[in-house]
Specification:
Keywords: Membrane, Transmembrane, Transmembrane helix
Organism: Microcebus murinus
GO biological process, one term: cotranslational protein targeting to membrane
Radius of gyration: 23 Å
Protein name: ADP-ribosylation factor-like protein 6-interacting protein 1
Strand content: under 5%
InterPro entries: ER_autophagy_membrane_reg
Number of strands: 0
Order of helices and strands: HHH
Length: 89
């Protein structure tokens, strides 16, 4: 009976893995393109990134995303400054 349970869990794991692979397969193309953009393989990538980012700014700001991340960055910077001060004492 334990062998039957083991086979079922193995089959379930295989099915979940296959499902995950299928879901992630489309992201492969996205990751390849992102890699090319980050490596600036084309001369027009940096200006295209900047224009795209500028177009997204109003929407991001409207939802408070920019403010959230700026606040997080400020907290991290303050934390690092405090650690540096303690280290220097």
């Amino acid at each position: 009976m334990a062998e039957g349970d083991n086979n079922r869990s193995t089959n379930l794991l295989a099915a979940e893995t296959a499902s995950l692979e299928e879901q992630l397969q489309g992201w492969g193309e996205v990751m390849l393109m992102t890699d090319k953009v980050l490596r600036w393989e084309r001369a027009w990538f940096p200006p295209a990134i900047m224009v795209t980012f500028l177009l997204l700014l109003p929407g991001l700001n409207q939802h408070g995303i920019i403010s959230k991340y700026i606040g997080m960055a400020k907290r991290e910077i303050n934390k690092l400054l405090k650690q540096k001060e303690k280290k220097n004492e």
